[in-house]
Amino acid sequence: MTSAITVGTADLLRLLAALQQTAVHKEDGNGSPWCGILLHCARDTDAPPGQREILAGTAGDGWVLGHTHIRCQGQWTRPTLWSIDDVRALIAAFHPKLKGNKHHVTAVELGPAGQVVVAEAEQDLLSRSGFRLQFTEKPLGDYPRQAWRLLSDVPLDTRPVDRTSGVPLQPRPRTDLAGATLGAFAAVSKIIGAPVEVYRYHQREPLLIQIGGVYRGYAAPAHYEETRDVARWPHATVHDPDLPPPPPRDGGGSVLKTGSGVIIKDGRADAAFIDLDEPISDFPAVEHDFEPLCQAATIVIETQFGGSSALAKAMKIAYPRAARLLEQLEDHGVVGPSRGSKARKVLAAPPDLPAVLAAIRGPEQPAAPDTEANPT
């Protein structure tokens, strides 16, 4: 069985660049078992048919850890560990291929003797013609087996205990993190194009991190000393400047002079005067646009798939917007709660769609009277 895959070059380089941020960079002589980026193929059973093959990667140093995946075609028969130097060389060699060709495809084959061959998909991997890169895998034997356990969900009832008394330690609001830890995930956020979500369970427990719908991270606190946990709020001094009050604005860029009630528009005084003490009432009703949510409900129910990425692609919207629509659909009972990187469970069947859309839109508002046809 050939151990080879094809993958979008842009996706592959983005995956490797993101994993570089949490990887051990100085490999020579440091004795760390975490050195390198571990890659393996898997199947996403929650993905639509034809999109289930994925290439997953993991990299960390025990204090920070990152794990993400991309779509691919084909399968590797074993995991492979790549050195950071080889990853840098691969990115430098294949990045120019994306110029003028965003859909460039790369093939990666694992040889029986530990050789990795990376080539343009149009070329024969085993031939000597065409552009390709070849390097040797790193030994897998010492790679830490607890990496994926660290990334798993932490039970909400977990509470560390005092080593002397055995009494559970109460959670406190402070967690110390090293600057390099924050910088690594900020860089990943920029590469993936999604904000960093931080999940904190206890000041003595690691932080779990999610970026977009495909990246899971782990960050261990920098300190565990009890004396560092006593602060209940930040104690750094805040210095307020003595600024004059800002002038009120009417929302269109013109200044509203509250002293005289004269409205200044485009540098000239308007003839209107207002009584600022008079309460304003009779606001027009707010018109709600339910169509995006109705469109999302239709797609999710008809496809019976509740994934944020698939919904974003179908509606041609950003991933965070699709995630918020799914949260609203959860409130309407269309989908179940979030399951991390897995798609939400769809609770409504296609025959339920008309009732769901009617519930989202709510009762119809009475039409406004036609004053011209019915003069008073």
Q: Determine the number of helices (DSSP H or I, runs of at least 4 residues).
A: 8
Cα shape: globular
Proportion of residues in helical segments: 10-25%
Mean pLDDT: 80
CATH structural fold name of the largest domain: DNA Polymerase III, Chain A, domain 2
Rg over CA atoms? 28 Å
Count of spatially separate domains: 2
| N→C terminal distance | 85 Å
Beta-strand fraction estimate: 15-25%
Based on DSSP secondary structure assignment, what is the total number of beta strands?
15
CATH architecture of the largest domain: Roll
Residue runs with pLDDT of under 50 for 5 or more positions: 124-128, 254-260, 271-276, 365-376
The top-level CATH class of the largest domain is Alpha Beta
Give the structural class: alpha+beta
Protein name: DNA segregation ATPase FtsK/SpoIIIE, S-DNA-T family
Pfam families: FtsK_gamma (PF09397)
Organism: Amycolatopsis tolypomycina
Domain FtsK gamma: 287-351
Give structural notes.
- InterPro entries: Ftsk_gamma (IPR018541), WH-like_DNA-bd_sf (IPR036388), WH_DNA-bd_sf (IPR036390).
- This is DNA segregation ATPase FtsK/SpoIIIE, S-DNA-T family.
- The protein is of the alpha+beta class.
- It has two domains: 208 residues, DNA Polymerase III, Chain A, domain 2, CATH 3.10.150.10; 71 residues, Orthogonal Bundle (Arc Repressor Mutant, subunit A).
- Helix content is 23%, strand content 20%.
- The chain contains eight helices and 15 strands.
- The chain has a seven-stranded antiparallel beta sheet.
- Helix 1 packs antiparallel against helix 4, helix 5 crosses helix 7 and helix 6 crosses helix 7.
- The longest helix is centred in the middle third of the chain and has 14 residues.
- It is globular.
- The N and C termini lie far apart (85 Å).
- The C terminus is likely disordered.
